[in-house]
Amino acid sequence: MKKIVMALGTMAMLGSTANAQKVAFEEYDLENGLHVVLHQDNSAPVVVTSVMYHVGAKDEQPNRTGFAHFFEHLLFEGTKNIGRGEWFKLVTANGGNNNANTTDDRTYYYEVFPSNNLELAIWMESERLMHPVINQIGVDTQNEVVKEEKRLRVDNQPYGNLLKAVKTNMFKVHPYRWTTIGEMEHLDAATLEEFQAFNKKFYVPNNAVLVVAGQFDSAQAKEWIKKYFGAIPKGAPVTRQKFEEAPITQQINAKWEDPNIQIPMVVTAYRTPSMKTRDARILDMISTYLSDGKSSVLYKKLVDDKKMALQVSAFNYSQEDYGTYFIYGLPMGATTTDNLVSEIDAEIVKLQNDLISEKDFQKLQNKFENNYVSANASVEGIADNLATYYLLYGDINLINTEIDIYRSITREEIREVAKKYLNPNQRLLLNYEPAKEKAQK
């Protein structure tokens, strides 16, 4: 009887947790087109203020790559009312922290403050939008910062150019063919007027979403948002050219040499649909099945049992317009990259011909349930998700309903999607190799 009571108590607790996971929010638009989202969470006396701009590397010109990432740095330089070099001092002096990040599709800025500093956070983000100071000294300073970041994270990092090597070969016309950090010679060649024009075009209220999440008074927050953001002029509508890639119909073979590595890597990469599609989510499940954790199919087979690989992984690099599905491995001992690809391909063929077991399918479902809980476990995570689902997916309520899509995916769909996208004639086969020593004169 005691066990039954405990079980019922556990079920009730789980039910309560499931209900608590629903994220409540309010959204509205200012007259200048800025979309505002409010989410109240009184569990801790903190508040997150974030702005996501619908501008990323794909909005750049082929001879001016790296602009969006550059602005991630440049817009911390200062504003009309915040002196150069004072931004971070102002944040830390008021008990906060802040950061920003850029992808091919968007740029995201945020502050986390004690809840009594919400007005300061709203004012600072409105300053970044309304009164940025974009001058030559700021451009020159951040140019050096970005160059150092590229040296550290890309040029001198083992396998640091992997994404560039794949993107260059996977995309021929779409701007996804270049990396987010871009090329330094493009930034060197750009004029101050080009940077100012980029800011004027993309950093406008009607190309952004403001999220306030945490402990705050809603009426007061709305008053401050109107006060500081309401006066910012609406920008010209942002229009984007649509780029469509021709299907890959035969394997692309490519090679890249990296002076920072000693062990070669082999990569198979497949072009996949937008992250907004059901198929993209099924591919998420396939990558989890193949390589998430030491009990996953590829890890157990190639790393543990056959000891053919030092590392193996599959992941769906999902983006707004297209995705890229990666599978890569580092061969071990006498194993060749060809042997490794053959073993990986054999597991893909199994996925295409047979249904995964009920046990493995349940394990997948459990992992995605856990991912859903983790993604909304912090107010920072919720703020990011609210902005992303609104701006990139066009459906903000996916923060509550996307898990239902994953729950509805079937074993049969996993098999069919593997058949649809993961075929040798639809992929890039990249040998990422140690650089050969230069021939002696």
Automatic annotation (TrEMBL):
Ranges for domain Peptidase M16 C-terminal: 190-367
Annotated ranges, domain Peptidase M16 N-terminal: 36-178
InterPro entries found in the cross-reference section: Metalloenz_LuxS/M16, Pept_M16_N, Peptidase_M16, Peptidase_M16_C
Domain of life: Bacteria
GO-annotated molecular function: metal ion binding; metallopeptidase activity
Signal peptide (UniProt feature, chain positions): 1-20
Protein name: Probable M16 family metallopeptidase
Organism name: Flavobacterium indicum (strain DSM 17447 / CIP 109464 / GPTSA100-9)
